[in-house]
Structures are given as C-alpha cells and as structure tokens.
Write a structure and sequence with these properties.
With about 1250 residues, this protein is α/β, with parallel strands linked by helices. It has a six-stranded mixed beta sheet, sandwiched between helices. A five-stranded mixed beta sheet has the order 3-2-1-4-7.
C-alpha cells in the first residue's frame, strides 16, 4: 500500500486517540477539518465508519461509502486497496440491513469476502483493515440471522437454493459458533500481545455481541482481558461495566456495585457520556431486581424513579447521537414497564423511539423494537391506530426485503390487530401470511405445524360469524388447509400434530353439520391444586366453558356457577405463581379468561332462563366481565359486555330500567368511540375502512338501536308529561344521528387527533395553524358567539399552505349535529324559499319493525311504527300474535325485483311492484304537504330503494314533493353549509367541466354507433351551455386537474358498483391510464367500455368501483376509484352530475357507513351530487341531462337543484313511463347551487 500523506496519517491517528476517550464529536470534527481531497479516499471513509460504528449512528458515513463504491474499479488497483473496497462493500451491505432493512444480497457478499480474504489468512498476520473485515463479517452475518431467520439452531434455517452454502454447517456463519468465538478470542489475545488495545477492544465487543459468553470460560476470560487492558483506562472501565452487568444478572449486588463504581469514576473523569448513560441503565436493572425482592415493584414512588432514569438515559444517549445504545436502553425500559401494573412514562418512551426512528438511521433496530413492543404487555399502551400504522408501514416498505423473521413477526402482530377490531377475514389473511414467512425462514416442522394449527382455529372460529355461501366457501377452504397440514405433519412424523389435525377435521365436520353452531375442543380439566401453565390454562378454560354451557342447557344454573367458581380458583393460583416481574402478565391473562367465561355465562343464562333472579345474576356477570376488560384495556370486549348488560336491563324492565340501560349503552359507545378514533392509518381512506370495520365488529348499530328503543319507550310512557316526552323524543332522535356514519364523523371531526409523528414532510408552521384553528373553533363552540376576525386570518393562511392536501377537506368539515342545527336549518329554508317547508325523514330499522322519525316544521319529532295499524293494535289487546311488516319483508322484495339489476327490461320494475312498499312512506300523508321539500335519510335495507317513486295516497312522491337523499343528516348539514358559503361568495360566470366516454364499437371500427353519436351531441350541448368543451379520454390526473375550481362537473359514461363481501370504497370511473414509471400503460377489462356494462365479477370489490372513463383503445383503460377521489380530488363546493350506472349505489353492510362514489365526492368537497340507483340506459341519461340543465339559469343565478331534479324526472317519466327509466335519478347533498 502506498504511503499515506503525512497530514492524512496524522489526522487518522488523532481520530484513534479521540475514540479511545469516547470523544465521538471531536473525532468527526478532526475528519471534517481535513482537506477535501482526502474525503473520497477509502482510508478516510473507513475511519469515518469506525467513529459511526463506535457511536451507533450511521447517517454520516452511508452516503460516503455509496459514492466511493460507485467509482471506477480501476482506481483501486493495489491489493490493499482491493481489500479496503471489499471491506466497504461488506459495510455497505450491512448498512443496507441496518438502515433500510434490505437483507437479500448480504449473505452472498459476506461469504465471498470471507472466502477471498479471511479463510486463507492467519489471524496473527492481520493488519488493521483485516481486523475490521473480520469483525464486519461476524457482525453482519449475525444481523442477517436476526432479520431473516431468528432461529438459533442453524440446522433448521432455510438455505437458499441459488447459493453454494452446503459446506457451511452453521449457515450463514462460515464457522460453528464455538469455533467462531474461539477464533475471536485468539484474535483478542494476539492484539493484546502486540499492544493493539483499541482493536482488541473492538474485537471484544464483537465477541460479546455475537456469541454467548458461556462458549468460553467467562470469569477467566474477562479477568484476562481486564488485566491486559489495565493500561487503557477507558477500555478497563468498559470491561468493568460489562462484568458488573453480568453480576447483576446473578444478583450478586455487592460485588457488582464495586465494578460499577470503578467504571463510573473513569467515565466521569473522561466525561464519557455514553458510558455514563449505560451505567444508569445497569443501575436501573439492579434497582428493578431489588424492588422486586422488597415487594415494592408496583409502588408508584419506586417504579416512577426507575422509569424516569430509563427515559433520562435514553434522552442523554440521543443527545450525543448514540442511537444503538439508546434503543437498547428503551428495550430494557419496555421490559421493565411490562412488569408494572400502570407504567407512567410509556408515551415518553414511544416518543423517544420515534425520535430515534427519524434521526438515528437505524431502521432495522427501530422495527425490531416496535415488533417487540407489539408482542409485550406494553402493547396495551399503543393505540390501535398506531399498531396498524406500524404494521402497514413495515409491509409497505419492506415486503420484499427478504427479512422473513421480521415479516413473520409483523404479520402476526397485524393479525392480532385485526382480531382486536373484529375483522376476522383480515386476521386469518395475516396469520396465513405469517405462516408463509415462517416457511421461508425455518424447516422446523413442529413449529410450522403449531402455527398452522393456530391458523385453522382462527378459520374455525370465523365460521361462527358466517352463513350461507360464505360459510360453505370458508368451510371448504378450512378443510383443504387442514388436510394439507395434516399430510405435512404425517410426512414429518409428528404424531402429536397428526392427532390434532384429525381432531380439527372432526371439529370442522361437526361445525358444518351442526345448525346450532360450533362446539369447543374437549380437553382434560385442571384441578385447583395442580401446577398451571398457559397451555394448561387455555385447555382448562375451553373444557370448563363447555361444561358450564352444558349445565345451563340442562337448567342446572347452580352447577354452571360451580364451574365458574372452580375456574376462579385455578386462575387465582395461576395469577399468584411466578415472580413479581411476571405478575402483570399473569394478571392480564387471568382477567382475560375469567371475563370471557363470565360473559359466556351471562349470555347462556339469558338464553336458558329469563326469571328475575336469573336475569339479575346474568347482569352481575356481564358487569363484572366489563370491569375486567376495562382493567386490561380490551375496549372491544368491554363494549360487548356493556351492550349485553344493557340488553338484560331492557329485558328485566325493573325500576329505572330505561335510564340504566342508556347509561350502560353510553359507556359502550364511549369504548367504541375510543377504539374507533384510535384506529388511524397512513391513508385516510384506509383509516376509514378500518374504522368502519370497528363499527361492524362492535355491532355498533345494536348500541344505537337499543338506545333508541329505550328512549322511545320513555316518550311513549310520558303521555302526561309533554315536556318530558319532547325531551325523550329529541334524545332518541339524536341517538339515531350519532349512530349513523360514525367512522366518517370521527375521521372528519374537528376534534380528530392526527397521527402527527408520521407527518414528517409537513411543515411545523402548518401543523401549528391546524392546532390554532381547532383551538379557536373549540372556543367559539363553547361560547356560541360566532366567528371572530382572527379565525378568518388563520383560515386564509391555511388555504395558502398546500403541503397538507389530505387535511384540507377535513379542516372544512364539522360533522357534529345537534337538534338545534336542524331547527335553524328549517327556519333558514323557510326564509329563503318564500315560507315553504323542509321535512327531515329518518328510518330506524330493527329485526321486528321499521320506524319512521320525522322532524316537522314546528320542531316536533314524530315517531311512527310503520304498518302498525289500529287492527294490529286491537289484535295485541286481544292477546293475539302481532304481525307487521319489517326489514325481512323489504329484503324479500329486493331479492324478488332487484337481484336482476344487470338485465333491466321494460317490465323489470312496474309501478305495481313499487306499490308493495308504499307502507314505508305512509305517514308522510299526515306529516307533510304537497310541495314540501323532503330530506330522506334511509337506513339498513332501505338503502338503494327508490323511496321517491313510492306513493302517498294516489300520488307518486316525486310528483308530490322535491326530494333529497343523504346518508346521515350530519353529512347533509355539511353539504348545506358548503353550498351556502359558495352561494354567498360566488362572483362572475359559472365554470364547468364536461366529460364523456365512447363505447367499444366506435373505438374498434373508427365509426360511432347511433347512441355514441347522440351522447356526443348531448355532451356538446351541455358544454356549450356553460361555455366550455367536452373532455373525452381523460386520464385520472387530467380528470383531477380539470375538475379543480369548477362549479359544475358533468360526467356521462360508466360506473361499476361491486357488492361483494370484501367491498369498500372501490367504485370507479374508467379513465385513460397515466404512464407508469417505465412508460407503460396499465390494461383494464374491456367489458367496462361497453355502453351497457356487464355485471361485476365475484372477485372485484367496491373501493375498486367508480366512474368509468375510456381512452382511445379499450385495452388501455384504467379505473379512477372512489378511494382516489377521496384522497386526490379537491372540489370547491361543486355540483356533480354522474350519468353512469349505479353511480348512487352504496355498500352499507358495514354498520351504517356509506361507501361509494357519492360519499367520496362529498368528502372531496362537492356540495351536491346527482347519481343513479341502478344501471341505466344511455338514452335515459341523455334525456334526463338535457331536461336537468334546461332548468339552470344564467351566471350568478341560484339553481333549485331539488326542483330541477324533480321536474326532470317527471319529464323522463312522461316520455318513458316505466320506473326503470325515470326512478333511478336521485340528488344527494345540498338542494341549491349558485352558478
């Protein structure tokens, strides 16, 4: 190797000296002061890496190594330079793992370097670079093992087929651990003999990190090291610190304190900050064990001291950029916090973890710590939203990283998250993903069989929640899965798992053939005096639960509660066994099992007996279960217990039953709100879907439905108390409104807490504006005095901050609705419309009846039980069974007339068919007059029914009244406010965007069909009406751009609404695709380009639905989904008309949460949208459009949208009387628009 320039050699020598005293900052400054021409030298970069490695922070060196390796290889012609370049290659590959979780290429690089340089070389001839290369291989390969395998037994690691690695018995290690540790110890002794102490200490650190100390003679080896390091005070102190930590673990405190004290004196003398922080951690570990022995571990005074020390040590390490040691400190803290009943500083710890994530450049270690937290007791301190963001982000960034062990852990965590929010299909999906990753990292057949058994149990439990075809499909999938793993277990000779597999099949067969549902495994019961482990405990719970249910079925209530008492004793024994450090974990497990048993006991008792004493006993069990779940933070199960308790109270109807049931339901609602509001995601629409799943899993509508029933009963009984009756009716009405669109409400609420720690690209000053606006609006809401001038200034500044587009529509929406808001809206409507009235109509759907609630112009709330006639009432008085029509009758009607939606014909939907549903609107004859504007807010099975086409008396409703639809009155009120603000600020001429799609035939043959020509002519007339041109064949990006700042948006084309069980916001427009990064276009199904689209396939889903726009070629079309509208489209209170099939269709099976194009557009900023309820003929759409826009005035005029739609529908009806043609057109949102 050619001689180094004296100045560079001198600088590198000073760096080594600074490192010996732990002066990392000074070492970096020495390198920074060297002339620029040295900075691209390999020796310089290796020195920089040495500082970063000692410090545990790699950002400063990563770029330098990458740039150096990108140079022409010819400039590294000497053997020593080639050695340095291979060293840098190995370092860069390890940094890829540490900083970017990129694992795939590392093993081949490290092993090739080992074979070239290290395997043939005697360690006693190593120079400094050879020592570094040796360490790099050991450290890198152990990092690789941790991320890819996490498997201690090398024989069980999966070996890649594309590498010749069979000769490595400890793959990916080139040596067995014993041989490798002895090799490093020999290297340490050699370096000590030649007085290369700093290098010896580096090798010692590597030896202790990579291999257990038990592979050598610990005391002799460390004493030998300490004796030789006596001349180096820092190195001696580091060895003493390590020996002290080992003694702490052996609880030899007196000797350990001596070692720690010696180390502390040296660290303080040298001002060695990272060593002092590590000392604090060691003392914390000693204090933890001591407090445990004293029995004061959970005393807030003692535990608080230790928690504070951990957090302070972490902050001190972050301040000097020692991020690796900082995250190790956090790991110790989380282990300590998991042993506490109520850790006080989890939030500070998580904040420190996020600081390390953003600043430390050690992404791998951050993700390992996050996965560890999700697997520990501290998981309860991590909001569900944060859990989902962690898992989602890891998969989004590192799905193809090759880090199979990490992917396995996060897939398991994500499966648990979906269990917590009640999404069983997703739970199974990620459990199966975890199993797939497990197969990529290990060949341990027993471990794989155990995981497969767990997946099957998930599938089996999921069957309890399915019926019909869904049940059959899932049962078939479960059988195939079980047979597959039964065969694998048999091939591996795993008799235990073969028997479990056969048992699983028998259980599945029983489930499929048992109409009463599933039965549990029969396992041996435990006695209270037997030793208890978690496996035995789980088996005992399942067995005792089965015995308890059998007792209830046999009416042996006392026997059932004897079983519960036995289980209490077993759980108490389990809880009290073990150490104090394990108490919290055991307590949580015991409370979980007991609460589950109590809730099952309560439900079974209610099913089998409804006597007053038994209902009281069931209520006590449900309330105790709720308290247990509250203690361990299980919000979902706590809410379920509270809902069940409220059900019992309603059944018992004892004194104050209404107030007590409502109180329980409000507590359940609080649990549901907390869980749902914590459920966030990196994408707003993903957050909404997760929130909606929480709504469904909580049976949220049961909460609101029962609350409504209780409050309605109060109003019914309060005949002699008009004031009390009115108050109860208002409470019942507000309960309904709170129950609708809960996920959208808290997603867009003023009080939504944004996941700010993930908004790294958002300027602090903008987030400051968000917080200031919230604070001002909250203050104004409390004072109810209107807006003050400063708020306008804040809003103006926010409008000029485009860095946070996803938050802009959220900042403009306030979804909290009060009854007073509706009264104010009625008054404003009357003033603005010459005294005309607006009536708000809701439907509350239960299994036994459908109620209509209306808010009249006088502010009165009227509740009508539909189809409940005088004759029915007399039957009830006579004691005869009551039969009124309900949701089942509506469902039957929809199955009879709506299931053939893809093949409408003239006789598909006659008026006589619609007349069968006139009972749904019958009360409107009394509560409304002809000419009143009606706002319809349907629920449940009523979604999608053309309520405006039903008749009151002999008159069709759309002929009698202008009608507006909405998914919830809170969203309608928001639309009104947007339209009102737009009408007051509108100046100048109206702007519009008009879009069209041609059919396939015209594209294929170059000539338009007659209908295509008519469509083009109609669109051109509409465009001319607004002084614009028609846009054909636009891409999603063009569509977004052209819609910006437009007042009117008209679209004539195609939309697909797929209604499968996995549907979400996936309705879509078909547009010309934008090019991907490789300049290629993405093909879409050609069928979507037909004038009459074909029905959706079973594999498609609803956030994939949308408007269909085309390009010039049917092979190059793409969907513009409602998901993309929600996240990318920015509308300024525009009116949108969608002449497309089923564009007003909704998927509402997840609670009452609306999904589809219309809610997506309203959330994107539209004030009103016209759409269609079912697939329509293009001719009908053309006729409606011409009639609709003919009723628009000139620029600046105020358009009565509800009136225009009504008159247009009647015009279409006159031309084409069958309801198939005129009934699909509906208006959502505001009823007026300023041109």
């Amino acid at each position: 190797m050619e001689p180094l320039e004296s100045k560079l050699a001198e600088g590198l020598s000073e760096v080594r000296g600074a490192l010996q005293s732990g002066a990392y900052k000074a070492a970096h400054e020495i390198l920074d002061d060297l002339p620029l021409q040295y900075r691209n030298r390999p020796e310089f970069v290796v020195a920089r890496f040495g500082i970063c490695e000692a410090q545990g922070s790699y950002r400063r060196v990563d770029k330098d190594i990458g740039e150096l390796l990108a140079k022409d290889p010819g400039c590294f012609s000497t053997p020593e330079r080639e050695l340095i370049v291979d060293l840098l290659r190995a370092i860069h590959a390890r940094l890829d793992m540490i900083m970017r979780c990129k694992f795939t290429p590392y093993a081949s690089i490290a092993l090739s370097v080992w074979q070239r340089w290290l395997s043939p070389t005697d360690i006693e001839t190593y120079n400094e670079n050879m020592v570094l290369l040796e360490l790099e291989c050991h450290l890198g390969l152990h990092t690789y093992i941790r991320g890819v395998y996490n498997e201690e037994d090398a024989a069980l690691r999966v070996r890649p087929a594309n590498l010749d690695v069979e000769r490595y018995s400890a793959y990916p290690l080139p040596l067995e651990p014993v041989a490798a540790s002895k090799r490093l110890e020999s290297l340490i002794r050699y370096l000590m003999r030649v007085n290369r102490l700093e290098e010896a200490f580096m090798v010692l650190k590597c030896r202790l990190i990579c291999y257990p100390l038990s592979l050598s003679e610990p005391e002799h080896f460390l004493d030998e090291i300490e004796e030789n390091f006596f001349s180096g005070p820092l190195l001696r102190a580091r060895v003493r610190l390590f020996k002290g930590v080992q003694l702490i673990r052996l609880q030899t405190f007196s000797i350990a304190e001596g070692f720690l004290k010696d180390a502390q004196e040296i660290f303080e003398w040298l001002d060695y900050k990272s060593g002092l922080a590590e000392l604090r951690v060691a003392k914390n570990q000693m204090a933890t064990i001591a407090f445990q022995g004293m029995g004061v571990l959970n005393d807030s005074l003692f535990s608080g001291m230790v928690e504070q020390e951990y957090i302070d040590a972490t902050k001190a390490l972050c301040a000097i950029e020692c991020y690796v040691i900082a995250i190790q400190t956090l790991n110790s803290y989380f282990g300590f916090a998991g042993a506490l009943q109520s850790p006080a500083m989890l939030e500070q710890a998580f904040q420190a973890l996020e600081e390390i994530a953003s600043q430390g450049g050690i992404e791998l270690y951050v993700w390992i710590q996050r996965a560890t937290c999700l697997s520990r007791e501290v998981r309860v301190g991590i909001g569900l939203g944060e859990q989902s963001v962690w898992c989602e982000t890891f998969f989004r960034r590192h799905k193809n990283s090759g880090a199979y062990a990490m992917l396995d852990r996060f897939a398991s965590c994500y499966s648990r998250f979906y269990y917590d929010i009640g999404n069983r299909s997703k739970q199974i999906e990620y459990a199966m993903s975890a199993l797939e990753y497990q197969q990529l990292r290990t060949v341990n057949a027993a471990e794989l069989a155990q995981s497969a058994h767990g997946v099957f149990i998930y599938m089996l439990y999921n069957l309890e929640h399915l019926s019909g075809k869904d049940f059959d499909d899932e049962a078939l999938r479960a059988r195939e899965f079980c047979l597959q793993w039964l065969q694998k277990s048999a091939d591996a000779g795993l008799s235990q798992w073969v028997e479990k597999g056969k048992h699983n099949l028998a259980r599945l067969d029983q489930a499929v053939g048992n109409s009463e549902g599933l039965v549990s495994f029969r396992r041996e019961s435990l006695k209270a005096d037997e030793p208890v482990g978690i496996d035995q405990l789980t088996g005992a719970y399942l067995s005792e639960k089965e015995k308890m249910l059998s007792c209830f079925a046999a009416k042996d209530v006392d026997g059932a509660f004897d079983v519960v008492q036995r289980m209490r004793e077993v759980l108490q024994k389990y809880q009290q066994s073990g150490t104090d450090l394990e108490y919290s974990d055991r307590r949580s497990t015991a409370v979980t099992i007991l609460s589950a048993l109590l809730l099952n006991a309560s439900k079974a008792l209610v099913i089998n007996s409804r006597t007053s004493p038994h209902l009281q006993r069931a209520l006590s069990c449900a309330e105790e279960a709720a308290q247990g779940y509250q203690e361990i933070g299980e919000l979902r199960n706590q809410a379920a217990s509270l809902v069940h308790a409220a059900t019992i109270v309603i059944l018992a109807k004892q004194t104050d039953w209404t107030s007590r049931s409502v109180e329980l339901l409000r507590k359940a609602e609080t649990c549901a709100d907390r869980l749902r509001e914590e459920t966030v995601a990196l994408s707003l629409v993903d957050a909404l879907e997760n929130k909606q799943q929480v709504v469904a899993s909580f049976a949220s509508m049961d909460i609101y439905r029962m609350g409504y029933i209780a409050l309605k009963a109060v109003a019914t009984y309060a005949k002699h108390d008009p004031e009390g009756k009115a108050k109860s009716e208002r409470s019942a009405w507000e309960w309904i409104q709170r129950g609708k669109a809960r996920s959208i409400s808290d997603l867009l609420s003023l009080y939504q807490i944004y996941p700010q720690r993930y908004l790294k690209d958002v300027p602090d000053e903008f987030l400051g504006l968000v917080r200031e606006k919230k604070a001002r609006l909250r203050k104004l809401g409390q004072n109810a005095q209107g807006q003050d001038p400063p708020l306008g200034i804040v809003q103006k500044e926010m409008s000029e901050a485009p860095e946070l587009p996803d938050f802009q529509p959220m900042e403009d929406i306030n979804v909290n609705i009060r009854f007073e808001d509706i009264l104010n809206l009625q008054e404003a409507f009357s003033q603005e419309n010459g005294g005309n009235r607006i009536i708000f109509v809701d439907w509350m759907v239960s299994s036994s009846s459908i109620d209509m609630t209306t808010v009249t112009e006088t502010g009165e709330i009227r509740i009508d039980i539909l189809d409940f006639t005088l004759e029915v009432a007399m039957s009830h008085i006579r004691g005869q069974p009551i039969k009124i029509r309900s949701s089942e009758d509506v469902m039957e009607w929809k199955r009879k007339y709506f299931d053939s939606f893809s093949s409408w014909s003239e006789d598909s939907l006659e008026m006589e068919y619609l007349e069968e549903l006139n009972w749904l609107v019958a009360p409107l004859a009394e509560v409304s007059r002809p000419g009143d504007t009606l706002v319809f807010c349907p629920s449940g099975v009523l979604h999608g029914i053309p309520l405006h086409a039903l008749s009151v008396g002999d008159e069709c409703l759309i002929e009698r009244n202008p009608i507006i639809y909405c998914d919830s009155l809170s969203m309608m009120l928001n639309s009104y406010r947007k339209a009102k603000a737009q009408s007051q600020s509108k100046t100048g001429s109206s702007s519009a965007a008009v879009f069209g799609v041609y059919g396939r035939s015209g594209m294929a043959h170059g000539t338009k069909s007659k209908e295509e020509a008519e469509v083009q002519s109609t669109l051109e007339k509409i465009a001319a009406r607004f002084d614009t041109e028609v846009s054909f064949d636009v891409s999603p990006a063009d569509f977004i751009t052209k819609c910006a700042d437009q007042s009117i948006i008209h679209y004539h084309g195609h939309a697909v609404l797929n209604t499968t069980k996995n549907s979400g916001f996936k309705q879509a427009l078909l547009l010309q695709p934008t090019q991907n990064q490789k300049g290629k276009q993405v093909a879409a199904p050609q069928a979507l380009l037909q004038i009459e689209p074909e029905p959706p396939t079973p594999t498609t889903t609803a956030l994939d639905d949308g408007l269909l726009l085309s390009s010039a070629s049917p092979a190059t079309a793409t969907n513009f989904t409602a998901r993309e509208m929600f996240t990318d489209l920015r509308l300024r209170s525009a009116h949108v008309t969608l002449i497309a099939c089923s564009s007003a269709g909704q998927d509402i099976r997840v609670g009452e949460e609306p999904q589809g194009i219309i809610p997506a557009l309203l959330l994107a900023g539209a004030a009103s949208v016209v759409g269609t309820l079912w697939p329509i003929r293009s001719q009908d759409g053309r006729l409606f459009s011409m009639e609709f826009y003919a009723r628009f005035g000139g620029a600046g005029s105020l358009v009565d949208l509800a009136g225009a739609l009504r008159e247009s529908v009647l015009a279409v009806r006159k031309a084409r009387p069958c309801p198939v043609h005129w009934a699909p057109f509906v208006l959502h949102g505001a009823w007026f628009h300023r041109l």
